[in-house]
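Supplementary Note 2. Why include the ligand at all?

Several targets in our set were suspected to adopt different conformations when bound, so apo predictions alone were not considered sufficient. For every target with a known small-molecule partner we therefore ran a joint prediction. The input for zinc ion is given below.
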Amino acid sequence: MAAKNITILGIDTSCDDTSVALVKIQDTKYKILSNVISSQVKLHAKYGGVFPSLAKREHQKNLPAVFKEVLEEAGLLTLGGSTSREISREVEPLKIDFIAVTAGPGLEPCLWQGINFAKEIAKKYKKPLIPVNHIEAHILANLIVRSRTPLKIEWSPTPHNLPAVALVVSGGHTQLILIRKIGQYKLIGETRDDAAGECFDKVARILGLGYPGGPIISQLAAKVAGEQFSREGELFSVKLPRPMMYTKDYDFSFSGLKTAVLYRVKQGNYDKIEMCHEVQQSIIDVLIHKTIKAAKDFGVKSIILGGGVAANEELRRQFYLNLKSKILNLNFLVPPKNLCTDNAAMVATAAFFHRAEKVKDIKADANLRI
Ligand code: KG4
Ligand code: ZN
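The joint prediction is reproduced in token form.
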């Protein structure tokens, strides 16, 4: 007998994106019915980073509308109305089995907005709530594999790729996690100061490039390959350190890199494109070296990437190349780019594996560990 369809609503408000998604899972079939992300990037850009109280207010404002959009897109809501009260009148009964929400880690005031909204709809529709760890969600986004046909999503609930080492790199985290099986994680290393994404963002601010820094820096860095920078010598006149690259542990440190950029900028006479290229390459070198070292030391089958920085084209490309050239017999998994950055489909996906667990009252935990 085929297992029943399970529909999970996911909510993520851990940082500056308000995201709600609906996914449907049955045996090996997986479908994202809707995955809506309302980005606050433009609002925070003038601060060069996320402003928590502003983000909190925006989540509160956006959640009912994003929720409604998801229901509409999934075909569960066809009438008008945008306030929570109007919505609740219109979607009775709601065809959802579980409501999943990020409980942490993240910005505490932001997390609470998602949790309170999830509790409200869970109570209204009498649906069970599942708290989700945001880091685990970034890792499990790898189960949502985009096949060659752009819109087809494949799903492998029992990955043959384990044990694995996961590198979660985002604006708030840089962690190496050993995964024996889904739900069984061990944090083996992490950043001692800034996260890799935070480093991209801070460097972009120093260079006056805007926010978020990762996508802007990577776009500029790509120009180094262009003709105007083909003269060797002049090209790499900016040389930055590779912090903690050769230490024996699995930890990282990126605040010194940001400081090195600051000093070099103060010296003057540098090119922004070269600087972007060198910063990105420094981050990539350290991330790849430490991750491969961990994978070898722990004898795993796969390297798994997740988090916003994993959307970086060069990081993805150089990981592939390194694994290939070193003839390391390791699988390499990375989610589609839109599932690397924050989204609620990954939250709903992670909840699938925790749906049988007993849940006490859900509280926001800014420092929740995996
Ligand atoms: O996972 P995420 O969306 O949010 C957090 O949980 O933090 O990651 C956001 C971070 C930002 O620091 C952003 O600059 C970085 O991911 N990022 C990138 C790229 N796209 C986003 N960094 C490098 N290259 C990219 N293409
Ligand atoms: Zn994230």
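Residues 147-154, 227-233 have pLDDT under 50 and may be disordered. The radius of gyration is 21 Å. Comparable summaries for the other entries are listed in the accompanying table.
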